[in-house]
């Protein structure tokens, strides 16, 4: 009887541990949210919530009221606060939350593979200077004309997003020699661009200083030739970017292509 009682006691303790573990798992899941499945491929429109629930929709609209929080309107009736959404898919494509963003931005997926690619749009404003026309009339400080640029990210194996740059890609593509070779081309090109920019800037400053010197008597003031040489050197990186390949994207495409050619383990 004593042995049976001890066995029952051990089972009871084990059940309590399992219940505590389950409770903590649910708590972390609800409080901290989930990482969106960035490689999700499914037809239709839907949103994925922080609690793991997926809501399908016949109609899905993004709403951004002026004096209220942004939300997603599902089927013209249900509203979901953007803070509660981890990912969604509408007519335009699949979007996932940027986990390292302080503004809770979403990035749009533009390619799917072992390495998937995303981007988000960032808007910045040029500053006004005194005497220019701004939001408060002439002579005030404020914000200038907006300019929008794309910020790119990537995801490996459906994991969280990472900034698309040389350092992150070198780590993610480390098992593919061809991709690493392409990344080295990118690194060498960036070093060359940096060197030409520094050299061109130095030559330009040298020419500018010489051009500002007081000329000899009865001599006309002329721009020093090195001024134009410096401008030419500094412009070379800009010209190079117009014609050279995007080596970061090339490395991703090669990585995905090589993996697609490999036979699956179950064959």
From TrEMBL:
Signal sequence segment: 1-33
Record keywords, A-Z: Signal
Protein name (record): DUF5683 domain-containing protein
Organism: Adhaeribacter pallidiroseus
